[in-house]
Specification:
Strands 5-2-1-8-7-6 form a 6-stranded mixed sheet. A two-stranded parallel ribbon has the order 3-4. Strands 9-10 form a two-stranded parallel ribbon. The protein has 356 residues and is of the alpha/beta class. The two termini are 37 Å apart.
Length: 356
């Protein structure tokens, strides 16, 4: 059954144990209500850490420096999209200290707009469901659907697991489970993560044992899903505990922002990254008569700004990392896409007729 503690609908299960499950549902509702009572207090703690008002630097303190809105500028690389991939690319590019990188991000800082929902891993379950209305401020309101095997779909072997795994290993700082699990065993093959030097992304099992999970493991085994040593090997047939992108000490969620970006701005480092947050990429700019991108037309939602556009130019490359929806949209408004679609929307000039 689909367990939806926040669903505005009747919870009906055609099963002899429905009374037990209904009781469990009520217990979960009570637990969630109690958790929400302390949410304001936790929000204050998170906000204090972000502002640096606790007397020590917080894990989500703002990095810097920032690009100047409404002012043209030139960098070696322009990255459109400050998400999981974009910030990782920015941090890795500026390991070469001679390179300058601008990151153009349409959003702001989650901890300032939605409090601790973006930092406490347990909140990942909020607004998760099969209804398109189950969205929140963190996921931009997007709804996904089953995807084909990407390596086959685009005929690119770099997306296969064995070719992708080395880059996963390069990113991770893994902490093995070190707390006792009652009623079950958290067995993992840690060799897939034991790579030096360690990456900045924290991967761990946290410091808390979920009682429901310990019994769920037995249920999976009873259904014929044997326990395996984790899924990090690429083997998915079986049951296992899964690690989280979570700092094992603080309990904060480890994201591309809190790991790659803040690590790039760690004391003693001086990366040439400029952040343009609350800034929309409107069009990719190409050298006249060529297919070579050399800049991005952008606008920032700064106070008093009336959609003024300005140009960020790239000496080397423009990297589009705006996600599965915004990346093709940006390409199309820039003149790259199916000719029929571009002409229907009166987009000109057409840089490349690219059906797909």
């Amino acid at each position: 059954c689909q367990f939806e503690p926040f669903a505005d609908k009747a919870f009906v299960i055609d099963h002899p144990s429905s009374r037990v499950l209904a009781t469990l549902q009520h217990a979960m509702r009570d637990a969630i209500a109690e958790a929400q009572l302390v949410r304001d207090h936790i929000d204050g703690k998170i906000s204090a850490l972000a502002r640096g008002t606790t007397g020590r630097p917080g894990p989500y303190g703002r990095p810097g420096p920032y690009g100047r809105p409404n002012s043209d500028a030139t960098y070696d690389y322009i990255i459109v999209g400050g998400g999981t991939a974009g910030l990782t690319i920015a941090a890795r590019l500026t390991q070469n200290t001679s390179l300058s990188v601008a990151v153009v991000e349409a959003g702001g800082y989650y901890e300032e707009t939605v409090g601790n929902i973006s930092t406490v891993p347990a909140y990942a379950a909020f607004n998760v469901g099969t209804d398109p209305a189950d969205t929140n401020a963190i996921d931009w309101g997007f709804v996904t659907e089953p995807q084909p095997k990407w390596a086959d779909e685009v005929d690119d072997e770099s997306y296969t697991w064995q070719n992708f795994l080395p880059f996963l290993k390069k990113s991770v700082d893994y902490s093995a489970p070190d707390i006792p699990y009652l009623n079950s065993t958290n067995s993992h093959d840690d060799s897939f993560f034991n790579v030096k030097p360690l990456g900045p992304l924290q991967v761990s099992f946290g410091r808390y044992e979920d009682p429901f999970g310990t019994w769920a493991q037995r249920a999976f085994q009873g259904m014929g899903q044997p326990a395996i040593n984790g899924f990090q090997s690429g083997k998915l047939i079986g049951s296992s505990y899964i690690p989280f992108t979570e700092d094992p000490v603080s309990g904060f969620r480890s994201s591309s922002y809190s790991s790659f970006l803040l690590n790039a701005f760690a004391p003693g480092k001086d990366p040439s990254i400029r952040l343009y947050n609350n800034t929309l990429a409107r069009r990719i700019l190409f050298r006249p008569g060529t297919h070579i991108a050399h800049g991005v037309l952008v606008s920032s939602s700064a106070p008093g700004n009336t959609n003024q556009t300005y140009t960020l130019r790239a000496r080397r490359e423009v990297i589009v990392s705006a996600g599965a929806f915004q990346s093709p949209q940006l390409l199309m408004v820039s003149g790259i896409g199916p000719r029929e679609t571009l002409e229907r929307h009166k987009i000109a000039p057409i840089i490349k007729d690219l059906p797909g």
